[in-house]
Amino acid sequence: MKRIVLSMLAAVCMLAFTACGSADSSSSAPKESQTEAVSQTETALQQSQAEQPSDPSEAEVSEDKQSAPDKTEEQSQAEADSESKASDTIVIYFSATGTTKGVAERIAAVTGADIFELIPAEPYSDADLDWHDDKSRTTIEMNDPAVRPAIANDTVDLSGYTTVYIGYPIWWGDAPRIMSTFVEAHSFDGKTVIPFCTSGSSPIGRSGENLASQAGSGSWLAGGRLDAGISESDIQAWINEMK
Q1: d(Cα 45, Cα 38) in Å, to the nearest integer?
Q2: CATH number of 85-242
């Protein structure tokens, strides 16, 4: 649009100059034509100015227009640190039937913790979990304190955590042997360790103390047994009681 208006102005100006030249060379040309040409030029110029867009977004961008200042290095670094900052708390659990899993997820939700599930290299079947059967896998394991079931995914790195929740079901009054496999393979130096368990009715007993002895490091709290359907508010109350 702007180019069209400028072209029109140039044409009008040429006409005006032509008219002026003609007036000088011929006394028969009316002076009114010169005045009219100048008037047309001024009118076209005014229209061109009026048609210029008032919205800066519609105008041509000047080559020397300065862009918004970039963020400072301190601001960028602060944002990066905030985004990359990880939790200093983790919930690690083993769950054979899903009960302990549900409680562990609620603890993680309340505390804002990371969460990691221990998966046995050989999954436990319903027959393996039959505590009525003296020959079931779990019965045999729990009757032998030296058994250490293999973990399929023990890739967790505890170095960045200061608080570790460790959850498990109670089997024959103690933590499953797979938990012994885990605590003996990791260092808990400088960490607060909070054991928790789920069960039909059995308390946590000495299971936490046994794991602490096997781990040989860390500051282990008494922990406790948590009901399968415990609410997040009750979990928060339980956590507050340990502080």
Answers
A1: 11
A2: 3.40.50.360
Distance in angstroms (rounded) separating the CA atoms of residues 217 and 165: 15
The count of other CB atoms within 10 Å of the CB of residue 201 is 6
Q: What is the pTM of this model?
A: 0.66
pLDDT per residue as tens digits for the range 45-83: 455 454 444 443 434 334 443 444 455 555 555 454 444
Rounded to the nearest integer, the mean pLDDT of the chain is 79
At residue 165, the pLDDT reads 98
Asked whether 1 and 51 are in contact (CB, 8 A), the reply is yes
Residue located via tokens 């003609």 = 22
Residues 55, 53: Cα–Cα separation, whole Å = 6
Task: Quote the CA–CA distance of 113 and 232 in Å, as a whole number.
Answer: 14
Please state, as a whole number, how many other Cβ atoms lie within 10 Å of the Cβ of residue 109: 13
pLDDT in tens, 175-229: 999 999 999 999 999 999 999 999 999 999 999 999 999 999 999 999 999 999 9
Q: Could you tell me the residue ranges of all domains in the chain?
A: 2-53, 85-242
Res 46: pLDDT: 53
Q: Which residues pair with 168 in a beta bridge?
A: 197
Helix axes 207-215, 177-184, angle to 10 degrees: 30
